[in-house]
Amino acid sequence: MSHVDNVRHTWTMTDIVLCTINARFVHAALGLRYLRANLHALRERSEIIEFVLGQRTEQMAERLLASGPKLIGFGVYIWNVEETTRLVAQLKVLAPQMVIVIGGPEVSYEVENQRIVALADYVITGWGDVSFAELAADVLNGHPPDAKLIAGKQPPLETLVMPYAEYSAEDARRRHIYVEASRGCPFKCEFCLSALDKTAWPFPLDPFLRELDRLYELGARHFKFVDRTFNLKVDTSLAILEFFLAKIEACPSDPPFAHFELIPDHLPERLKSRIALFPPGLLQFEIGIQTFDPEIQARISRRQKNDVAEENLRWLREQSHAHLHVDLIAGLPGETLVQFAQGFDRLVALNPQEIQFGILKRLRGAPIARHAEAFDLRFSPDPPYTVLSTNTIDFPTFQRLNRFARFWDLIANSARFSRTLPLLLGTSPFARFLAISDAIFAASGQSHSIAHERLIVLIRNGVAALWPEMLAATEHALICDYRNQGGRSRLAFDRSDTPLPAPRSKVQSSTPPRQARHLAQG
For the purposes of burial, counting CB atoms within 10 Å of the CB of 179, is it exposed (0-12), middle (13-18) or buried (19 or more)? Predict the structure, then answer.
């Protein structure tokens, strides 16, 4: 028997395959695990197969067909729709008799002109937990429905089988474990699909905590909550934080890491008292500010008390060890570059560890589309449907902003330039970083695939051209940052007599170990 036959022999034959293409290996698909857990009698006739963006279509098709399925269900998202479409097209050529079902946010709205919808046999829009199981049973029992589009049923959450037993021990050891204590969102921010939800629905707390405990015993140490509003119900938030604090206290040498999405203007003292107890590197908050401008907030139906949000961010940064990942969006309807810059500078002053500078995207079904005509919002026709121009920001400026965002990730969010960054930002962070971003691009012609040492030189040369009076201080800061990251080469502008650092087996960093692992894996 050949090696290929040996490999193929390990693949189980099954009737139902649940599949998606993840952005990275560490991202384990929670949605697929919900679908399998709720197949009930059909569960043993199913398996989950996950791929990663960048794998060859032919290899993915070979793997799927080797399982011999009668039905494949694909989870389709904005980041994988193009590759999933190619995969489905190839499967329909190779195995036209096989039933293909698609679902997920990317195919739940505006389905009429999507190629993947035309290729698939069935499309489940909205919630699929119950509807996929019903469809699979009908197909396998020889009674396939006539209608191609199936509106997903929304069951009471307490009737769902929780998906966490579908995570394997390998998942627990090597991947992010996605969990949710609630679904939905009561807010109506128009750039987000959650604006279509009527409210947020909690899962029963005690069974959920038991599942967290089981995952912890399985070896899971990296928990990422997908709740849109983790701190909406404070009693539930406290119980979950207490769970993690107890695990940290019980085994401080191998503690769990937890990531939550936080509402910025709702942080009562009871929550603060628990947040303050977390050691460095074990707690991360993703916080959506999006815009500080009241006029823009009202236009997109975003309710946010800016002063309270600002006060809470300041408290989190100064009185806790939580890592703060704060989001801003450029390109919102009617927002000018000046307005965005003011918000950016206001956020920089609060000093979060990361600022995620994003460009507005038109998610299928999101209400933001209603502003397209009034504000001349022009979006890319291809995923991720990024805005290309508006009536207040033209296309060349958006190109500059995209490069700004990329260089901000490389320089600011990477934490590799802690001494240099304050010199670059000065007292006008947005204007100055846009200038250095333009200078780096003008000199290099690229914003990706720039080696660390080359980026250092590009920064140095940009400062020399823009602000020659601060060149000496910048060179010193760049050298210190480089060596602090374990750099061992002599930089071209390093004229000091200081001995180069000795070789290290591991790069030293001020970032706590578990936090560093999270940031490296995204």
Answer: buried
Per-residue pLDDT at 507 = 36
| pTM reported for the whole predicted model | 0.90
Average model confidence (pLDDT) across the chain: 92
430 token code pair? 């947005």
DSSP track, 246-295: HHHHH-TTS--EEEEEE-TT---HHHHHHHTTSPTTSEEEEEEEE---HH
Please say which residue of 92, 127, 156 terminates a domain: 156
By percentage, how much of the chain surpasses pLDDT 90? 88
What span, in angstroms and rounded, lies between the C-alpha atoms of 81 and 115? Answer: 10
99 in the same domain as 151: yes
Q: Which two tokens stand for residue 90?
A: 């190839």
Could you give the CA distance from residue 71 to residue 473 in angstroms, rounded to a whole number? 63
- Amino acid symbol at 216: Y
CA gap 245, 274 in Å, rounded: 8
Residues 93, 38 contacting (CB under 8 angstroms): no
Which pLDDT value is given to residue 494?
Answer: 87
The total number of structural domains that make up the chain: 3
Q: Of 341, 365, 393, which one is at a domain's C-terminal end?
A: 393
Predicted local confidence at residue 495, as pLDDT? 84
> Is 398 among the domain residues?
no
Q: Which residues of the chain have pLDDT under 50?
A: 1-11, 505-522
Containing 63, the helix (H) or strand (E) segment is helix 57-66
Does residue 162 belong to any structural domain of this protein?
A: no
